[in-house]
Amino acid sequence: MSTYYGRQQEQSEFHGVMAKKTSSLVTCQGRRRIGKSRFIRECAKGADVFLEFSGLPPRPGLTKHEQLAVFAEQLAKQTRAPLLKLESWPSAFQLLSSQLPDKGTVVILLDEISWMGIGEPDFAGHIKNAWDELFSRRAKTVVVLCGSVTSWIEENILNNTGFVGRCSWQFHLQPLSLTECAQFWGRAGSRISTTEKLRFLAATGGIPRYLEELNVKETAEQNIARLCFHPSGMLFNEFDSIFHDIFNRKASTYRQIVHALVDGAKGVDEISRRIGRERGGSLSLALSDLESSGFVKKDVPPSVSGGTSKTIRPGQRHLRYRLSDNYLRFYLKYVEPNRAQISKSRFKSTALEQLDQWDTIMGLQFENLVLENLDAVLKALKLPRHLVLSAGPYHQNRTQRRTGCQIDLLIQTKRCIYLCELKFKGQIAPRVIKEVDQKVAALKVPKTKSVRTVLIYDGNLAPIIEEEHVFDFLIPSHELFAN
User: Fold this and answer.
1) CATH fold of 373-481, please?
2) Which CATH architecture has domain 180-368?
3) What is the DSSP string of 59-74?
4) What are the phi and psi torsion angles at 384 (to 5°)?
5) For the whole model, what pTM was predicted?
6) Inter-CA distances, 93 with 70, 101, 125, 169, 464, Å
7) Do 58 and 177 contact (CB within 8 A), yes or no?
């Protein structure tokens, strides 16, 4: 029985590439642990030949010749090629090409492509030449360039004039949806509450590698304690591994940026002040890298007083950057501050449910989880995606003429604004009605637009909330898991 979950649309697209009679150059990007290599392997099961190569992780003193030696070993293990000492990448690609069969579908995965090119400044050029002179001339050949350092692929492949017209497809894998995540509980899923699933996903998000560590016999808190609050836990050490392996020498700056975003979204000016680095080239590049790597989202606040988000140009100071990755948010806010104690195993006998603010922690993480599953919210609202002009958190500053307000999720269409309140509590009290009424009153909306109120929740509602029909839409959390 297959244990591969989700990605049906992407798999269908990849199979379409494989079905072509001509050759295809493909890129696959995504956050570390998102399952890029596994995705390619799963898709390549229908190929006649699948060959996989991966570069060595960065470390001081790593050379081109060491990368070539590993490539030669991997090639010898997967083909009949002799184990040779390779002196250059052109000779390496020539040897690989000589091992391909005359007929049949071949998929070649060059994984962690930026690592593979360490020590070779012309590596992208060698790939281009190998594609032009070798692989593109063989029918039914798919070469996949894959990596976690998405900025390298964008700079050296997608935005490189030498590759114009050569890439047939670009896959950018996102975290799994809540529906896809639920499959990791297997048969036990029907016995486990939506609330418990959400509590676990609040710490991991839809990252497949983290979900593989789930033990369905343990509670959400037991799983989180084992993975995050134990010295040998995978997610206790994951943060350092991510930033060292992906960002290497830039890791310190990138750490400062994500730390600056832990307590909420911020504009470039505020990030600049927080980390003591001038706005401009290097800071913009770092934010772009974090965004393309899947850790940060760039939000353009909607203009609810008239016009749409399209009236705000991306280069303006209205842009706000948000730490969108659930694991990073959880680690930085709740694990790292206790790192010294965790290293001494002082959390070993502590039940996480008894920690101060634990329910508040789960509530904040739930909000981020919902934001990353916007399609599920739109489906529950029966709102087609193409009608949405903007969607995201909304912050209205207080002025002399208007009251300030903070809206968890504001969805805007041409004629309507959906004001969404997110709640994750055991008991949801009637005061949520007043809270939302105050936000509606504070929001300055054109007379041509209607406001719809939405409560997205996990927990037991106070009877008056349902009986009085005070919200236009009530979306219980289990609906977000619906197919």
Assistant:
1) Trna Endonuclease; Chain: A, domain 1 (3.40.1350)
2) Orthogonal Bundle (1.10)
3) -TT--HHHHHHHHHHH
4) -60, 140
5) 0.91
6) 13, 15, 12, 21, 69
7) no
* Backbone torsion region of residue 30, taken as left when φ is above 0, otherwise alpha when ψ lies between -120 and 50, otherwise beta: left
Contacts of the segment 282-287: beta carbons below 8 A, 24+ positions apart: 282/253, 283/257, 285/151, 286/250, 286/253, 286/254, 286/257, 287/257, 287/321
CB 144 within 8 A of CB 107: yes
Q: Which fold has domain 8-173?
A: Rossmann fold (3.40.50)
Question: What is the arithmetic mean of pLDDT over 159-168?
Answer: 90
CA quadruple 87, 92, 93, 94: dihedral sign: positive
CA–CA–CA angle 362, 363, 367 (5° rounding): 115
The angle, 0 to 180 degrees and rounded to 10, between the axes of the packed helices 281-292 and 268-275 is 110
pLDDT in tens, 419-463: 999 999 999 999 999 999 999 999 988 889 999 999 999 999 999
Rounded to the nearest angstrom, the gap between the alpha carbon of residue 193 and the centroid of all alpha carbons in its chain is 25
Strands 49-54 and 24-30: unpaired
- Number of continuous H segments (helices) and E segments (strands) in the chain: 21, 12
At 21-54, the pLDDT tens digits run: 999 999 999 999 999 999 999 999 999 999 999 9
pLDDT above 70: residue 308: no
pLDDT digits (tens, 9 = 90+) for 440-450: 999 988 889 99
Question: What are the sequence ranges of the domains in the chain?
Answer: 8-173, 180-368, 373-481
Burial code (b: 16+ CB inside 10 Å, e: under 16) for 195-224 equals: bebbbbbbbbbbbbebbeebeeeebbbebb
Q: Tell me the sheet residues that pair with 26.
A: 144, 169
pLDDT of amino acid 45: 95
Enter the tokens of residue 388.
Answer: 């949405």
Please answer whether residues 177 and 143 qualify as being in contact, where contact means their C-beta atoms are separated by less than 8 angstroms: no
Q: Which residues touch 336 (CB under 8 Å, ≥6 apart)?
A: 239
Residue type, 281: G
| Partners of 49 in beta bridges | 106
Residues contacting residue 104 through CB under 8 Å, at least 6 positions apart: 47, 48, 49, 140
pLDDT band of residue 260 (cuts 50, 70, 90) is: very high
Nearest to 255 by CA among 222, 290, 231: 290
